[in-house]
Automatic annotation (TrEMBL):
Source organism, top-level taxon: Archaea
Note on how the cofactor is bound: Binds 1 zinc ion per subunit.
UniProt xrefs under NCBIfam families: PRK00432.1
Quaternary structure and interacting proteins, as annotated: Part of the 30S ribosomal subunit.
Tagged with keyword Zinc-finger: yes
A single cellular component GO annotation: ribosome
Gene: rps27ae
Zinc finger (C4-type): 18-38
Protein name (Swiss-Prot/TrEMBL): Small ribosomal subunit protein eS31
Cofactor(s) for this UniProt protein: Zn(2+)
Coiled coil residues, start to end: none
Start and end residues of each Small ribosomal subunit protein eS31 domain: 3-41
Source organism per UniProt: Natronoglomus mannanivorans
Length: 44
């Protein structure tokens, strides 16, 4: 998915941002969400 497809018409997104970096979206890998910048991971 390209970054420009993340935002709806109103500028909203359904993706979470990294709590450490703040400006990076977490990648959804099914069983976890991961930040590619700092390595933060949330397991589901």
């Amino acid at each position: 998915m390209a970054h420009y497809e993340l935002y709806g018409d109103d500028g909203s997104t359904d993706r979470e941002k990294c709590p450490r970096c703040g400006d990076v979206f977490l990648a959804d890998h099914g069983d976890r969400q991961h930040c590619g910048k700092c390595g933060y991971t949330e397991w589901e």
